[in-house]
Amino acid sequence: MMLLLLAGLSAGGYYAYQRTKPTDGEGGPPGMGPGGPRPGAAAGGPSGGRRFGGEPRVGSALAVRTDLPVHLSALGTVTAIESVVVRSRVEGELQSLHFTEGQRVKKGDLLAQIDPRAFEVELAQGQAAKARNQALLVNAKEDLARYETLLAQDSIAAQQVSNQRSLVRQYEAAVLADDATIANAQLSLKYARITAPISGRVGLRQATPGNIVRTSDTNGLLTLTQEAPISVVFALPEPQLAQVRSAIARGGLPVEARDRENRTVLATGTLRILDNQIDVATGTVKAKAIFANDDGALFPNQFVNVRLRVDTLAGVTVVPVTAIQRGASGPFVYVIGEDRKAVMRPVKVGVLEGEQQQVTDGLQPGERVVTDGVDRLREGDTVKLDDAPPGGRAGRGDGRPGGAAGGKGGERSGGERRAAPAAP
After folding, report:
1. What is the pTM of this model?
2. What's the burial of 84, exposed, middle or buried (CB within 10 Å: 0-12/13-18/19+)?
3. Among residues 121, 120, 142, 40, which one has the least CA distance to residue 417?
4. 245-276 tens-digit pLDDT
């Protein structure tokens, strides 16, 4: 039994060895099949690869000379120039409302009416009291005239004449008090008609007819907000203050209000006002821009992104921001020469505006720089340009750029033939 077991193990091991041993050509260099290279495998590995010494593909762009606008960005809040909480100045029953919620009203339009009957009664009482005191005053003046005549004849005592004069002055003061009472009643009648103090849009009402309104009500009757024109308040950093002030002195500073995603321009206005002091806690100064807002694109207390143009740099060298690399010695770019060799060159950068970076030194307009694929580059590498014109690429043996003779099945757009799959 032991001999039979050993014989079975030997046969199984030989069978497994025959199934797994490599054939001719296997285990050799990549791209080698039985008897030689596999079809479609290029010597040196996959096309454009760096692992087996191929030329790396990179994206590139030309440095250009152009005018570069300089913008500042900030976060702002839309603020109404005028906003009023309309309250009643007198107490009484709310008789009627003369507006609808959301309506646009003009200054002086009737908004609400307080029951005026109590104030009309006060006015009538004041007028009656004045008429009574006026009659008493006339009588007292006539008595004074008679007393003065009798005093001249030495028929009455001087004390009696003095008392009559005091009585006349008393009635005159009573008439003045009645005038004040009448004016107060008339003012209450005027306050019973609640009119719009400003032009704007009416908010949600806080009371309905039939309620008793009081002067101490905190919510008031309604809120009236001006929407056109409207302002945007934002903060600017202290280092930019001098630049902004000089731009305002040149005739105003255009401001754009953008949506929350900073993609759509909602309105365009002008920077008009800077605060009179810098906030020491944040190192910023508040600014206010005015917008016409005729279309109502801006809404009070809305969050917006603010973008203002403070200057324009004329005739500067500009490259895409992706071309600028950072190293231990500072910023640098890879410049591609006529021989398609990438050379690392240190540069000095200036203003960054969106995707455009100003280069102040180290690069001339018209030079080509690498913008994509920098991680595959080394100093002096010969590169292939993804964005080069087809005529500038080397032919593939048939006189045509990027195509095989008669081949269409693997062609890409622009005449470049898709490379055959490399060997595993």
Report:
1. 0.60
2. middle
3. 40
4. 887 877 778 899 999 988 899 999 988 788 88
